[in-house]
């Protein structure tokens, strides 16, 4: 699998980061307990376990996506050393989050906007599908039926335009240019 860079991960929206992790997480083959300190686990044991977990992460193709998502999720605490995610201890994640606070705030705001955009796209697609299944009534005479068909075509065009506008904006924003 292609190894993602931090620069690439920072440009991605949350669902894309999550999909990359779902597809490539190396820890999917590891013991999940490796990444968390057990209650009352002695420091020396945890330090050895933490080093092993970090070693697994450093061989993971989606480490950058995982770290980015952990930062946006608020994982880690600067007072409690009890987990590893994205190749970093919880304390390291907390410190990194402080240093990148402005960038992360902007990324999370963009995630929210993308969620709203995605809902808009789904709603328009469902409306388009439902509208396309409606047969204008045949009981009102040929002339009136032609009007109904024209109105329906107009609604379909408006919905298709709405979908194209959302897709084009998203593609342009992510550097893909205008929707094909
Ligand atoms: S970076 Fe580590 S915690 Fe994250 S998906 Fe990869 S192996 Fe799992």
From TrEMBL:
- Record InterPro entries: 4FE4S_WBL
Domain of life of the native organism: Bacteria
- 4Fe-4S Wbl-type domain residues are 26-95
Matching PROSITE patterns, A to Z? 4FE4S_WBL
Query: Which Pfam family name is an example for this entry?
Result: Whib
State the protein's name: 4Fe-4S Wbl-type domain-containing protein
The organism of origin for this protein: Streptomyces cirratus
